[in-house]
Design a protein that fits this description.
Strand content: 15-25%
Largest sheet: 6 strands, mixed
Helix content: 25-40%
Number of helices: 10
Strand order of the largest sheet: 4-3-5-12-6-13
Shape: elongated
Structural class: alpha/beta
Distance between the termini: 10 Å
Number of strands: 13
Radius of gyration: 19 Å
């Protein structure tokens, strides 16, 4: 029975207790929204459990070669996948993730960013956001959950799709903020947790509440995982209340849930 503690950012995190072999390699695929807390929490799980995390990163959806569904369709190994709940449910239906292994981890919100030192448009109300989109010279959005919402639903709701879509750019296999930081785009929209770590940009703010899209990111165990108990322990660690402070510092809101059964 694993009974150790995790030291993360100066605080002790109690390890979830599961019986599983130590010294195994766990293949983890995570989408961008959970990447920041994953990189903070993962090394501590490795140190305490004796297991090694083999990490792969990609979008929750879409046809980019590194998107998680594309990786799985090529047969890349995955003990744990972490992605938007809608996409995770599709993987369960397709037989690529074990039914009943799904655990909601965090809620993520969308924000707008500009290159550091450039003017910030006003986006505090829906009408201000709408006008900012009309005034912008160029806008970038992700190829995953936030970008799908922006390009296929939000602009249509605002009645400005015909005017705005021609000056937008869908960013594949790269953070939207990185393209904004290089000066290639005036505005960029992506999940808060994916914008915060990018140097050279400034956060204008989250989308106004009436048009905000909160996406739940969840974890599941790969259907072909050879280490399901170790995978379950990793997911329980990410879902544990002790990890919530780390998660919040990365711009995400942890999902509170009953204690997982051992």
């Amino acid at each position: 029975m694993l009974r150790r503690h995790f030291l993360v950012a100066g605080g002790l995190l109690a390890a979830p207790r599961f019986a599983h072999a130590a010294g195994v390699s766990l293949h983890v695929m995570t989408s961008g929204a959970f990447t920041a807390p994953y990189r903070l929490l993962g090394p501590s799980f490795e140190a305490a459990s004796g297991n090694k995390l083999e990490s792969a990163y990609g979008a929750s959806m879409g046809n980019a070669p590194d998107a998680i569904p594309q990786r799985l369709s090529r047969g890349e190994p995955a003990d744990v996948v972490i992605l938007a709940r809608e996409a995770l449910d599709a993987l369960v239906r397709n037989g690529q993730v074990r039914p009943g292994s799904e655990v909601d981890l965090v809620e993520s919100r969308i924000a707008l960013a500009v290159r550091a030192g450039t003017p910030h448009p006003r986006i505090g109300t829906v009408e201000e956001f709408r006008q900012a989109m009309l005034n912008a010279r160029s806008i970038g959005y992700s190829a995953s959950a936030s970008g799908v919402y922006f390009a296929t639903e939000l602009l249509q709701r605002l009645g400005i799709a015909d005017q705005v879509l021609p000056k937008t750019r869908r960013i594949l296999s790269e953070r939207v903020g990185s393209v904004v930081a290089r000066g290639e785009l005036e505005l960029g929209l992506q999940q808060v947790s994916e914008l915060l770590p990018i140097p050279g940009i400034e956060m204008v703010g989250p989308l106004p509440d009436p048009i905000q899209r909160v996406t739940t990111f969840s974890a599941g165990i790969g259907a072909r995982s050879a280490q399901p108990e170790a995978a379950r322990a990793l997911i329980a660690f990410f879902a544990s209340p002790a990890a919530h402070d780390v998660i919040r510092r990365t711009g995400l809101d942890p999902v509170r849930q009953p204690a997982l059964a051992n």
